[in-house]
Amino acid sequence: MGETEAKAEFPFDINPMYEGERVRKSGMYVELGGVNKPGFELVLFEPDPAKINDGEVTLIGPDIEDMEEGGLYAYAMIYRVSGEELEKDLEAVIERRDHEYQGYIQGYMHLNQRAEIWVRISKDAVKKGLKSLKQIGEATISLFKAELPFIEKMEATYITDEETVIQKLEEANQIYEARDVRSRGLHDEDVDEFYQCSLCQSFAPTNVCVVTPDRTALCGAMSWFDSRAAARVDPEGPNAAIPKGECIDPIGGEYTGVNEAAVKLSSGEYDSIKLHSFLEKPHTSCGCFEVAGFYIPEVDGIGWVNRGSKVSETPIGLPFSTVAGSVGGGKQVRGFLGIGIQYFYSPKFIQYDGGWRRVVWMASDLKERVGDAIPEEMKDLIATEENAKDIEELSVFLESVNHPVVNGVTREVDGTKITEGWTKKEEEVAPAAVAAAVPVDKGLAQVPMTQVMASGAPLKLIFKDANISIGKLIIKRKGEK
Ligand code: SF4
To answer: What is d(CA 18, CA 33) in angstroms, rounded to the nearest whole number?
Structure first.
């Protein structure tokens, strides 16, 4: 990707080195979108170039200079694009690049995608002369056109008027939904290639994003169709085909081609990934996932909480932000997983670990949102914060509804019983193994220690408010006796 020069008229620097720059609350002039206000970004393909006023930015609502310092505002960015090589499939691809290119703007933080966008403008940027969102829009359009030459004409409408954002958001949600539905008819076994995406490696260098028909990107912004279109039109860009190779494990979704891509993309950090597994060789997670999953060893089940959830705490005592901290960073973390909302609709949804039969808890707003993806027989068996606020309440609930985890989960796809259930566990598991499975601190080390140690993954221990006295501490190099 070529270096992009800041235009002389912009009062801010534009450079890829600002990608990943964070604007903290203390240094923030205003916040747009995020969890407090509605927001979205949308790219629309216009087949008739005459209908695009190239380079024009329209603003509906208050501009930066009219905003109160420290204020929170709604925000929508709608781009219309045309070009001979363009097609509708590329809308989502171009839309996802908004995150990348706006990240080049100094003092402007852009996070997430679709209706989850979260933007902050820094006080420093305003001090240096950033007065108008039109300046941001013009800079963004010039970046898009410089980096993606197949965009011949582009115009933008930015909206900060909250009522208009809410109204337009409904239309945007219908467009996102139509894109997602299209992907649901195609499956991993129907194609010869998957696609990699390295867009988030700027802040999560070992992240390995693999997009398949049955596993939409964890950011939710790239389906297999979108990735294919991106690879075709921008072969030097972040999306490239991964030949599937041989299928090593059809249930876990492990392919030789994906494993080779994992080695390459993570610079050797990971050598294998099971696309449809939660606990063994899981997919890595950068920071953009729409939903974070967490294993709860006490009940041998899995919980899910979404970004922007109204639920302040999961039953492991942590909010989304803290769970997300354990999931993200481009790591393969056993016991935690970041996914896109669409993955709940996949027939291969964590099928290696029992799929929906292993799900014990969901934030109520998430459960409601993906209600039509949950198998009928599981709907009443999955707790929300209304049934269980902590692990004790969760255990009581699961027993009362006779959730599959209580007596052991049988994997639907091959009929294999993959967990023993609680009763058997209590009877048969040796005391030492039980002790090892006890969390170090409620919610902070929820994966059994034996599993973590066996995985060979780096081990991170966090002690909260702890008084520790150590008689002797021995640290050895790996392999040293
Ligand atoms: S989360 Fe993955 S698919 Fe989405 S933009 Fe980042 S690297 Fe690409």
So the answer is: 21
